[in-house]
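#struct-help
A.M.: can someone run this one for me? Single chain, 571 residues.
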Amino acid sequence: MNSKKSMSRKNPKKPLYNVTIDLTDAHSHRAQVRIEQGAEKLPGILEFPVWTPGSYMVREYSRHVTCLEPATKVAKNRWRVEGQPKSVSYEVYCFERTVRTSYLDENYASLVGATLLPLLAGPFTVEIKLPAHWKILSSALKFRAIGRGRYLAHVRDRDHWIDCPIVASAPGFGGVGKFRVGGINHHIAWVGLECARSMKEMEEAFEKIASTTLKFFGGAPFKEYWFLLHFGHKLYGGLEHRDSQLSQFDGSLLNEAKSWDGFLRLIAHEYFHSWNVKSIRPKALGPFDYHEENYTEDLWFAEGITDYFDDMIPLMAGMISMDAYKKARLRDITHLPDGVPAHRRRSLAETSFDAWIRHYRNDEDSLNTDVTYYSKGALLGWCWDAHLQKSSRKRWNLAKLMRAIWKEFGIDAYEDLASAKPGFTRSELFAFAEKLTGVKQAKLVESWITDRKPLPWREAAKFFGIKTTENVSDFALHHLGCQLAFGNSVTVKTVMSHSSAESAELAPQDELLAINGTRVGESEKTLNTLRKAMAKGRDLELLLTRGDKILKKKIRWKKHPGLGVEIGAEA
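D.P.: on it. Structure tokens below:
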């Protein structure tokens, strides 16, 4: 890895612009922003980013920007500054609780840079004004107090600003902690409504994850790191940054063992990303074009390989058992079993490329159309690992290869992306891997990425000594080829391609009223009715409603291999 520890060019001493973000009217959910000229006059055009790295969808952040003056809006995310004013001001509505958007209320704030500022050349300063009684402000931007409720940070450039989320809170709505491992200070700050674990417990768990990951790679691309956490009801998600992460979880559930394990897996995933995708990166992912989509076929590597290791890191740290690790590996198969039609419609390369229009927009046809670069990418990592170990007689494995890839392709967390060495191409990645390991793998792994078919996971399971089981987990999906949704009524959620349900002309959103003349109801009653009807013969009569019409459909049930099944491991 390039070991350069400073920027490739020196910043001018004076900031080009001075920004103030006023959050004191927090109950309005609006940030008041002012941009003043510094060493340079204000740009003639102010253009806001439309997306933020790590979340591959155009978000249209400028939709929450209002009252930008003195300026005239000339495009969806562009304003032309009128005259030559020394400052402009505007407001930003912040009330969206995700890791890629900003949230502000009277108790706390979770802020994402891309939502707040136009694309400014650097360096520039940012002053944040908080309600006077708020006590917590944390970010990799390293804000320093300059007065009561006032904090100042120096920002290198637009990438630095967009890559450093911010959390802040009033007393009782957040907490801070810190630990040092591998000579690196790690900061923890949570904001939100409730955290059911003590800071000491989080420090101890996070330290195990950090220590294991640092040993895994043999170093770090950063000198300091921030775990920024946003806790709230039913929240879940994470977004990686070069020397920090912003992760969300339902903090009230952290005392439950299953939730705690899932939370730590999320933390491990986002921490691993500081190496894989922020340091090692596909060529399209940095320098970034914040005006439009940045297409890549390699999210299977950025996200899927990270997903593979976010279970391995807790295992290596002694935080989960081998049995739990095996279940995690097989969970990826259960998410996308071989019978899912999407395997034959979209490859991993295609699903990566189409993330911008498909990944965040699941619909009733997603299982027919979309594989996920998370689960299937992780499964590819498992298959790749098995191939490396088998072919090299265990002299090489994917973990050892990842360390070497980081040293070859990784960049320092503080490098200017515009002048840093470019990201990898697949041909470069595989050529490096083959030369280093002596294992032929390029053609094989490339076929797994570009072919529209399931992966050879059974070979990997056999190599790693896992005997698998297959049990029906969704009775209707396995026997009829459709998913049912249960609420106030029973509706058809998804109809699988080439299934009994499709042949019987069922459609998504059909409401199921009866099976063979027996009224259906809640989940268990419906499934019992289905089982009894199936026991009497292969042909069933379904009574449905579609719109304002009542329909009768005949369906011949059958077993649909690889659909509605859970893959497990023999004890």
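A.M.: thanks! The chain has four domains: 17-169, 174-270, 299-466, 475-567.
D.P.: also worth noting: The first strand starts at residue 17 and ends at 22.
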